[in-house]
Design goal:
single chain; alpha/beta; Alkaline Phosphatase, subunit A; 12 helices; 10 strands; 11% strand; binds zinc ion
Length: 375
């Protein structure tokens, strides 16, 4: 067709050809655009279906068989062979008890934008990493596995993000496993059943999943913090992530969820403050990922940046700009208990949380004023 146009008149032909080409290109672009649009709409629909199922599942009680028996994970993948790292006799043991609180989907830049008196108190009386990031595969289960085991997904192998019994446990040893092996008490209080994948056999004395809502989770965790004097206690709060997926990150609903998580955090703080041995407790508050729109999991900054706060008697106060990885959380927890980091871990102890002399948590008195822990 183009040839017949060209034979009539060269000028006319060239004009027609140019038009034809541009029209074809415009048509192809708009077709491309329509297809992309359709695909992204499909993706969004699939995502939202997945999230609806996910939330419905997450809100259920402990997973059980049809006969009501609790589902336990088969040991499909055994943890990697593990040589316990030596107790660091040469180093003092800075703390006896490490409490790790992960607030799911909490973006650090949102903390100053809503009602977060407890997080702000921790910031002013602790150390706050301004450059903390999660792993690039920033989904809840893989990220938390890295947070607690000091290695990335290539080592722990936990890529899925749902409770899937046939997948078994993470392949890597966790800080809880190492601490328990060294004689400490370990516990996990979580709001999602999928955390069972991280609780490898022999790693936790207590595993509780009371509810999706943070209230019941922190009530059980607080009872444990009153009764236990040592080891690693992990607490997971879900609210911001839930609001982010259903209404969007940085929306009003998301901000309300953060305020709720902050109130739950306050329950734990008051419990720690009430302990006579509070100076022997290190509290680490972080998150598994941030988020944007109604999702997360990409390598963009809003997804990857996480809060990372250390609060305890040996913490060097103030905001700091040294980069922190979520994998450092596991190593810091071990370092706090005087345990060495396994040589093949990527995570390293954040010294700033271990070798200062803050004294605030020890005395229960913030410098210069007594901390007010908001209810
Ligand atoms: Zn998450």
């Amino acid at each position: 067709m183009k040839n017949s146009v060209l034979t009539r008149s060269t000028a006319m032909g060239l004009l027609t050809l140019a038009f034809a080409l541009s029209a074809t290109s415009a048509w192809s672009q708009s077709r491309h655009h329509r297809r992309r649009h359709r695909e992204s709409a499909d993706d969004a629909r699939r995502d939202s279906d997945r999230m609806r199922r996910h939330r419905r599942y997450d809100r259920t009680r402990e997973p059980t068989t049809r006969r009501g028996r609790p589902i336990t994970l088969p040991l499909v993948t055994a943890p990697e062979p593990f040589d316990p790292p030596p107790v660091q006799d040469s180093q003092p043991r800075p703390y006896d008890h490490v409490v790790i609180v992960s607030i799911d989907g909490l973006r650090p830049d949102a903390i100053a934008m809503t009602d977060t008196p407890n997080l702000r108190m921790l910031r002013s009386q602790g150390a706050w990493a301004q450059e903390a990031r999660t792993i690039t595969h920033s989904y809840t289960l893989p990220s938390h596995t890295s947070m607690l085991s000091g290695v990335d997904v290539d080592r722990h192998g936990l890529l899925h993000n749902n409770f899937t019994p046939r997948h078994g446990f993470t392949r890597s040893v966790t800080a809880l496993y190492i601490a328990r092996d060294a004689g400490f008490t370990t516990a996990m209080f979580v709001s999602k059943p999928k955390f069972r994948h991280i609780a490898i056999p022999g790693s936790v004395d207590v595993f509780e999943r009371p509810d999706y809502a943070c209230g019941p989770v922190v009530r059980q965790a607080a009872a444990h913090l009153q009764a236990t004097r040592e080891g690693i206690t992990f607490v997971h709060l879900s609210e911001p992530d839930g609001a982010g997926h259903s209404r969007g990150w940085m929306t009003e609903s998301y901000m309300r969820a953060i305020a709720q998580a902050d109130r739950c955090l306050g329950v734990l703080l008051r419990t720690i403050q009430a302990r006579a041995d509070r100076g022997r407790v290190l509290l680490l508050v972080s998150a598994d990922h941030g988020g944007h729109g109604r999702t997360h999991g990409s390598t963009q900054e809003n997804d990857m940046r996480i809060p990372w706060i250390a609060w305890g008697s040996r913490v060097r106060l103030g905001d700091f700009s040294e980069p922190v990885s979520t994998m450092d959380t596991a190593a810091t927890a071990l370092g706090a208990l005087g345990l060495a980091t396994p040589a093949d871990w990527t995570g390293r102890p954040v010294r700033r949380a271990l070798d200062g002399a803050n004294g605030a948590a020890e005395t229960g008195v913030a410098s210069p004023t007594r901390p007010t822990i908001a209810r």
